[in-house]
Amino acid sequence: MELKATSLGKHLAQHPYNRVTLLNAGVNVAGDKHEYLIPFNQLIAVNCKRGLVWGELEFVLPDNNVVRLHGTAWEETQRFYRHLSERWQTWSQSMSDVAARALDELVAMLNKAAPPDQWLRLEQVERLANVVRHALAALPLPHQRIPMFENCREAWQHCLGNCLMEKVAVAAARNAGDTVVCLTRYGNVMASRGSVIPLFLNQIKKQQPLTITDPNMTRFLMSLNDAVELVLFAFEHGNPGDLFVNKAPAATIGDLAQAIKELCNAQNEIKIIGVRHGEKLYETLCTREEMVKAEDMGDFYRVPSDNRDLNYARYFSEGQEKVTQMEDYHSHNTEQLNITQVKELISTLPLIRKEVFGEEVSEFIV
Length: 366
Fold this sequence. Notes:
Layout: E1 2-4, H1 7-13, E2 19-23, E3 26-30, E4 35-39, E5 45-50, E6 55-61, E7 65-72, H2 74-113, H3 122-137, H4 150-162, H5 164-173, E8 183-185, H6 197-205, E9 210-212, E10 218-220, H7 224-237, E11 243-246, E12 250-252, H8 253-264, E13 270-272, E14 284-286, H9 288-293, E15 295-296, E16 300-303, H10 321-325, E17 329-330, H11 339-346, H12 350-355
Parallel strand pairs: 8-11, 9-13
Antiparallel strand pairs: 1-2, 2-3, 3-4, 5-6, 6-7, 10-12, 11-16, 14-17, 15-16
Protein backbone atom coordinates (compact mmCIF):
# COMPACT_ATOMS: atom_id res chain seq x y z
CA MET A 1 0.00 0.00 0.00
CA GLU A 2 1.33 3.42 -0.95
CA LEU A 3 0.40 7.03 -0.19
CA LYS A 4 1.62 9.81 -2.49
CA ALA A 5 1.52 13.57 -2.31
CA THR A 6 -0.69 15.21 -4.92
CA SER A 7 1.02 17.04 -7.76
CA LEU A 8 0.02 20.41 -6.34
CA GLY A 9 0.82 19.31 -2.78
CA LYS A 10 4.24 18.11 -3.86
CA HIS A 11 4.93 21.41 -5.62
CA LEU A 12 3.80 23.62 -2.74
CA ALA A 13 5.27 21.54 0.09
CA GLN A 14 8.81 21.63 -1.35
CA HIS A 15 9.65 18.72 0.95
CA PRO A 16 12.25 15.95 0.41
CA TYR A 17 9.61 13.20 0.90
CA ASN A 18 6.49 12.82 -1.23
CA ARG A 19 5.42 9.18 -0.83
CA VAL A 20 5.34 6.40 1.75
CA THR A 21 5.03 2.66 1.24
CA LEU A 22 3.65 0.30 3.89
CA LEU A 23 5.87 -2.78 4.32
CA ASN A 24 5.35 -5.94 6.36
CA ALA A 25 7.33 -4.61 9.34
CA GLY A 26 7.93 -0.97 8.60
CA VAL A 27 7.46 1.90 6.17
CA ASN A 28 9.59 3.38 3.43
CA VAL A 29 9.38 7.18 3.12
CA ALA A 30 10.85 8.43 -0.14
CA GLY A 31 11.23 11.41 -2.45
CA ASP A 32 12.93 12.18 -5.74
CA LYS A 33 16.37 12.31 -4.14
CA HIS A 34 15.88 10.95 -0.61
CA GLU A 35 14.69 7.69 0.93
CA TYR A 36 14.19 6.71 4.57
CA LEU A 37 13.44 3.11 5.64
CA ILE A 38 11.75 3.01 9.06
CA PRO A 39 11.40 -0.48 10.57
CA PHE A 40 8.66 -0.86 13.19
CA ASN A 41 11.24 -1.56 15.90
CA GLN A 42 12.46 2.04 15.55
CA LEU A 43 9.04 3.67 15.37
CA ILE A 44 7.90 5.52 18.51
CA ALA A 45 4.66 7.10 17.26
CA VAL A 46 2.73 7.96 14.10
CA ASN A 47 0.75 11.20 13.98
CA CYS A 48 -1.88 11.93 11.36
CA LYS A 49 -2.51 15.68 10.93
CA ARG A 50 -4.58 17.87 8.67
CA GLY A 51 -3.37 21.18 7.35
CA LEU A 52 -5.46 23.81 5.61
CA VAL A 53 -5.87 21.62 2.52
CA TRP A 54 -3.70 18.52 2.65
CA GLY A 55 -2.87 15.78 5.06
CA GLU A 56 0.40 15.13 6.86
CA LEU A 57 1.95 12.01 8.38
CA GLU A 58 4.57 12.37 11.08
CA PHE A 59 6.83 9.43 12.02
CA VAL A 60 8.46 9.89 15.43
CA LEU A 61 11.79 8.09 15.92
CA PRO A 62 14.25 7.75 18.83
CA ASP A 63 16.31 10.76 19.93
CA ASN A 64 13.47 13.14 19.00
CA ASN A 65 13.97 12.60 15.27
CA VAL A 66 10.89 13.12 13.09
CA VAL A 67 10.24 12.21 9.43
CA ARG A 68 7.30 14.00 7.78
CA LEU A 69 5.30 13.47 4.62
CA HIS A 70 3.33 16.54 3.40
CA GLY A 71 0.89 17.36 0.63
CA THR A 72 -1.26 14.21 0.58
CA ALA A 73 -5.01 14.08 -0.01
CA TRP A 74 -6.74 14.07 3.38
CA GLU A 75 -9.07 11.11 2.82
CA GLU A 76 -6.26 8.99 1.41
CA THR A 77 -4.03 10.04 4.32
CA GLN A 78 -6.66 8.85 6.83
CA ARG A 79 -7.10 5.54 5.00
CA PHE A 80 -3.37 4.88 4.88
CA TYR A 81 -3.01 5.86 8.55
CA ARG A 82 -5.71 3.35 9.59
CA HIS A 83 -4.03 0.50 7.71
CA LEU A 84 -0.61 1.47 9.05
CA SER A 85 -1.86 1.72 12.63
CA GLU A 86 -3.53 -1.67 12.47
CA ARG A 87 -0.44 -3.41 11.08
CA TRP A 88 1.92 -1.59 13.46
CA GLN A 89 -0.18 -2.39 16.53
CA THR A 90 -0.53 -6.06 15.53
CA TRP A 91 3.23 -6.29 15.08
CA SER A 92 3.81 -4.47 18.38
CA GLN A 93 1.57 -6.81 20.37
CA SER A 94 3.37 -9.81 18.93
CA MET A 95 6.77 -8.29 19.75
CA SER A 96 5.60 -7.39 23.25
CA ASP A 97 5.14 -11.11 23.93
CA VAL A 98 8.72 -11.73 22.80
CA ALA A 99 9.97 -8.85 24.94
CA ALA A 100 7.96 -10.06 27.97
CA ARG A 101 9.56 -13.50 27.84
CA ALA A 102 13.05 -11.98 27.56
CA LEU A 103 12.36 -9.58 30.46
CA ASP A 104 11.02 -12.39 32.66
CA GLU A 105 14.23 -14.35 32.09
CA LEU A 106 16.25 -11.24 32.94
CA VAL A 107 14.25 -10.65 36.14
CA ALA A 108 14.84 -14.27 37.21
CA MET A 109 18.57 -13.82 36.66
CA LEU A 110 18.62 -10.56 38.64
CA ASN A 111 16.61 -12.01 41.51
CA LYS A 112 19.13 -14.84 41.77
CA ALA A 113 22.19 -12.59 41.48
CA ALA A 114 20.83 -9.71 43.60
CA PRO A 115 18.24 -10.96 46.12
CA PRO A 116 16.41 -8.25 48.09
CA ASP A 117 17.88 -9.33 51.43
CA GLN A 118 21.49 -9.04 50.27
CA TRP A 119 23.49 -5.92 49.46
CA LEU A 120 26.13 -5.75 46.74
CA ARG A 121 29.37 -3.89 46.26
CA LEU A 122 29.23 -1.11 43.68
CA GLU A 123 31.47 -3.05 41.30
CA GLN A 124 29.07 -6.03 41.48
CA VAL A 125 26.17 -3.74 40.59
CA GLU A 126 28.12 -2.32 37.66
CA ARG A 127 28.78 -5.82 36.29
CA LEU A 128 25.09 -6.67 36.52
CA ALA A 129 24.21 -3.33 34.91
CA ASN A 130 26.32 -4.24 31.88
CA VAL A 131 24.46 -7.54 31.53
CA VAL A 132 21.14 -5.71 31.75
CA ARG A 133 22.16 -3.08 29.21
CA HIS A 134 23.12 -5.71 26.64
CA ALA A 135 19.91 -7.67 27.26
CA LEU A 136 17.69 -4.60 26.94
CA ALA A 137 19.46 -3.47 23.78
CA ALA A 138 18.37 -6.75 22.13
CA LEU A 139 14.65 -6.25 22.80
CA PRO A 140 12.52 -5.97 19.63
CA LEU A 141 10.64 -2.84 20.78
CA PRO A 142 11.89 0.73 21.26
CA HIS A 143 12.58 1.33 24.94
CA GLN A 144 10.22 4.32 25.02
CA ARG A 145 7.28 2.04 24.11
CA ILE A 146 7.93 -0.94 26.37
CA PRO A 147 6.23 0.55 29.48
CA MET A 148 3.06 0.99 27.40
CA PHE A 149 2.54 -2.79 27.27
CA GLU A 150 0.99 -4.31 30.38
CA ASN A 151 2.73 -7.65 29.86
CA CYS A 152 6.16 -5.95 29.87
CA ARG A 153 5.74 -3.05 32.29
CA GLU A 154 6.40 -4.63 35.68
CA ALA A 155 9.43 -6.65 34.55
CA TRP A 156 10.79 -3.59 32.71
CA GLN A 157 10.47 -1.44 35.80
CA HIS A 158 12.13 -4.14 37.88
CA CYS A 159 15.11 -4.34 35.53
CA LEU A 160 15.53 -0.56 35.44
CA GLY A 161 14.50 0.48 38.91
CA ASN A 162 13.47 -2.00 41.55
CA CYS A 163 16.69 -3.96 41.23
CA LEU A 164 19.77 -2.20 39.91
CA MET A 165 18.97 1.44 40.64
CA GLU A 166 18.03 0.54 44.19
CA LYS A 167 21.20 -1.51 44.61
CA VAL A 168 23.25 1.43 43.33
CA ALA A 169 21.50 3.81 45.72
CA VAL A 170 21.99 1.52 48.73
CA ALA A 171 25.65 1.04 47.84
CA ALA A 172 26.05 4.81 47.50
CA ALA A 173 24.29 5.39 50.82
CA ARG A 174 27.02 3.47 52.63
CA ASN A 175 29.68 5.89 51.42
CA ALA A 176 27.82 9.17 50.99
CA GLY A 177 29.21 10.95 54.04
CA ASP A 178 26.87 13.71 55.17
CA THR A 179 24.56 13.22 52.18
CA VAL A 180 21.49 11.06 52.89
CA VAL A 181 20.65 8.74 49.99
CA CYS A 182 17.25 7.06 50.31
CA LEU A 183 14.71 5.55 47.92
CA THR A 184 11.00 5.56 47.08
CA ARG A 185 9.08 2.80 45.33
CA TYR A 186 5.58 2.80 43.87
CA GLY A 187 3.55 1.50 40.96
CA ASN A 188 2.20 3.48 38.01
CA VAL A 189 0.75 6.91 38.70
CA MET A 190 -2.92 7.09 37.66
CA ALA A 191 -3.54 8.70 34.25
CA SER A 192 0.19 8.74 33.43
CA ARG A 193 1.57 7.31 30.21
CA GLY A 194 1.76 3.79 31.60
CA SER A 195 -1.77 3.90 33.03
CA VAL A 196 -4.80 2.18 31.50
CA ILE A 197 -7.09 5.16 32.28
CA PRO A 198 -6.19 7.19 29.12
CA LEU A 199 -6.74 4.03 27.05
CA PHE A 200 -10.24 3.53 28.48
CA LEU A 201 -11.14 7.18 27.85
CA ASN A 202 -9.91 6.95 24.27
CA GLN A 203 -11.90 3.75 23.67
CA ILE A 204 -15.03 5.40 25.05
CA LYS A 205 -14.55 8.41 22.74
CA LYS A 206 -14.22 6.11 19.73
CA GLN A 207 -17.23 3.99 20.78
CA GLN A 208 -14.99 0.94 21.06
CA PRO A 209 -15.18 -1.85 23.64
CA LEU A 210 -13.08 -1.38 26.77
CA THR A 211 -10.46 -4.11 26.45
CA ILE A 212 -9.42 -5.92 29.63
CA THR A 213 -7.15 -8.93 29.89
CA ASP A 214 -8.48 -10.13 33.26
CA PRO A 215 -11.11 -8.18 35.26
CA ASN A 216 -9.81 -9.67 38.52
CA MET A 217 -6.33 -8.20 38.13
CA THR A 218 -5.60 -5.57 40.78
CA ARG A 219 -3.45 -2.47 40.55
CA PHE A 220 -2.45 0.17 43.08
CA LEU A 221 -4.23 3.52 42.63
CA MET A 222 -1.81 6.37 43.25
CA SER A 223 -2.17 9.96 42.10
CA LEU A 224 0.62 12.34 41.14
CA ASN A 225 0.04 14.21 44.40
CA ASP A 226 0.48 10.94 46.32
CA ALA A 227 3.78 10.34 44.53
CA VAL A 228 5.01 13.82 45.45
CA GLU A 229 3.94 13.35 49.08
CA LEU A 230 5.92 10.11 49.22
CA VAL A 231 9.08 11.87 48.00
CA LEU A 232 8.63 14.74 50.44
CA PHE A 233 8.07 12.31 53.32
CA ALA A 234 11.28 10.49 52.37
CA PHE A 235 13.15 13.81 52.36
CA GLU A 236 11.98 14.54 55.88
CA HIS A 237 12.30 11.11 57.49
CA GLY A 238 14.90 9.24 55.44
CA ASN A 239 18.06 7.66 56.82
CA PRO A 240 20.87 6.42 54.55
CA GLY A 241 19.65 3.51 52.44
CA ASP A 242 16.02 3.66 53.61
CA LEU A 243 13.26 2.59 51.22
CA PHE A 244 9.85 4.30 51.48
CA VAL A 245 6.61 2.83 50.12
CA ASN A 246 3.23 4.51 50.01
CA LYS A 247 0.25 2.56 51.39
CA ALA A 248 -1.89 3.05 48.31
CA PRO A 249 -5.33 1.49 47.90
CA ALA A 250 -6.04 -0.82 44.98
CA ALA A 251 -8.93 -1.93 42.80
CA THR A 252 -9.62 -4.56 40.19
CA ILE A 253 -9.23 -3.56 36.54
CA GLY A 254 -12.83 -4.63 36.01
CA ASP A 255 -14.09 -2.19 38.67
CA LEU A 256 -11.84 0.56 37.29
CA ALA A 257 -13.30 0.13 33.80
CA GLN A 258 -16.85 0.13 35.16
CA ALA A 259 -16.14 3.24 37.24
CA ILE A 260 -14.89 5.12 34.17
CA LYS A 261 -17.92 3.98 32.16
CA GLU A 262 -20.28 5.30 34.83
CA LEU A 263 -18.45 8.63 35.10
CA CYS A 264 -18.69 9.04 31.32
CA ASN A 265 -22.29 7.77 31.16
CA ALA A 266 -21.00 5.41 28.48
CA GLN A 267 -22.60 2.22 27.18
CA ASN A 268 -19.43 0.64 25.75
CA GLU A 269 -19.15 -3.06 26.40
CA ILE A 270 -16.26 -4.43 28.45
CA LYS A 271 -14.40 -7.02 26.38
CA ILE A 272 -12.23 -9.65 28.06
CA ILE A 273 -9.32 -10.40 25.69
CA GLY A 274 -7.30 -12.79 27.88
CA VAL A 275 -4.07 -12.47 29.82
CA ARG A 276 -0.97 -11.72 27.81
CA HIS A 277 2.41 -13.23 28.54
CA GLY A 278 4.17 -11.48 31.40
CA GLU A 279 1.09 -9.82 32.89
CA LYS A 280 0.85 -10.14 36.65
CA LEU A 281 -2.36 -10.72 38.58
CA TYR A 282 -1.23 -8.10 41.09
CA GLU A 283 1.56 -5.58 41.69
CA THR A 284 4.09 -6.20 44.45
CA LEU A 285 5.73 -3.25 46.19
CA CYS A 286 7.52 -5.01 49.08
CA THR A 287 8.75 -8.55 49.43
CA ARG A 288 8.11 -10.49 52.63
CA GLU A 289 11.81 -10.17 53.51
CA GLU A 290 11.40 -6.39 53.36
CA MET A 291 8.12 -6.47 55.30
CA VAL A 292 9.82 -8.31 58.20
CA LYS A 293 11.93 -5.24 58.94
CA ALA A 294 9.50 -2.58 57.65
CA GLU A 295 8.44 0.18 60.02
CA ASP A 296 4.80 1.26 59.84
CA MET A 297 4.77 5.07 59.65
CA GLY A 298 1.06 5.68 59.14
CA ASP A 299 0.53 6.26 55.42
CA PHE A 300 3.95 4.86 54.56
CA TYR A 301 6.28 1.94 55.18
CA ARG A 302 9.95 2.59 55.86
CA VAL A 303 12.25 -0.32 55.03
CA PRO A 304 15.75 0.22 56.48
CA SER A 305 18.73 -0.90 54.43
CA ASP A 306 20.60 -4.12 55.09
CA ASN A 307 23.63 -3.03 57.12
CA ARG A 308 25.27 -6.43 57.47
CA ASP A 309 28.83 -6.92 56.31
CA LEU A 310 29.84 -9.58 53.78
CA ASN A 311 30.62 -12.19 56.42
CA TYR A 312 27.54 -14.37 56.00
CA ALA A 313 28.96 -17.37 57.87
CA ARG A 314 27.17 -16.49 61.10
CA TYR A 315 23.84 -16.38 59.26
CA PHE A 316 24.11 -19.93 57.94
CA SER A 317 22.94 -21.41 61.23
CA GLU A 318 20.55 -18.61 62.23
CA GLY A 319 17.37 -18.05 60.26
CA GLN A 320 14.46 -15.65 60.58
CA GLU A 321 11.27 -17.39 61.57
CA LYS A 322 9.25 -14.21 60.94
CA VAL A 323 9.94 -14.38 57.20
CA THR A 324 7.82 -17.50 56.78
CA GLN A 325 4.95 -15.80 58.63
CA MET A 326 4.92 -12.64 56.50
CA GLU A 327 3.35 -11.87 53.13
CA ASP A 328 4.56 -9.65 50.32
CA TYR A 329 2.83 -6.26 50.25
CA HIS A 330 0.89 -6.22 47.00
CA SER A 331 -2.27 -4.92 45.36
CA HIS A 332 -4.26 -8.01 46.38
CA ASN A 333 -3.77 -7.55 50.13
CA THR A 334 -3.87 -3.76 50.46
CA GLU A 335 -7.10 -1.77 50.96
CA GLN A 336 -9.54 -2.67 48.16
CA LEU A 337 -11.82 0.03 46.74
CA ASN A 338 -15.27 -0.68 45.32
CA ILE A 339 -16.69 1.00 42.21
CA THR A 340 -18.16 3.95 44.12
CA GLN A 341 -14.86 4.58 45.91
CA VAL A 342 -12.91 4.30 42.65
CA LYS A 343 -15.21 6.86 41.01
CA GLU A 344 -14.68 9.24 43.91
CA LEU A 345 -10.91 8.82 43.75
CA ILE A 346 -10.38 9.16 40.00
CA SER A 347 -12.80 12.12 39.81
CA THR A 348 -10.02 14.20 41.37
CA LEU A 349 -7.57 13.46 38.54
CA PRO A 350 -6.87 16.42 36.21
CA LEU A 351 -7.32 14.15 33.16
CA ILE A 352 -10.80 13.06 34.29
CA ARG A 353 -11.77 16.61 35.28
CA LYS A 354 -10.79 17.87 31.83
CA GLU A 355 -11.93 15.03 29.56
CA VAL A 356 -15.07 13.94 31.45
CA PHE A 357 -16.27 16.99 33.36
CA GLY A 358 -15.05 19.62 30.88
CA GLU A 359 -13.14 21.64 33.48
CA GLU A 360 -10.19 23.85 32.67
CA VAL A 361 -7.20 22.42 34.47
CA SER A 362 -3.52 23.19 34.60
CA GLU A 363 -1.05 21.05 32.70
CA PHE A 364 -1.00 17.41 33.68
CA ILE A 365 1.13 14.40 32.84
CA VAL A 366 0.04 11.98 30.13
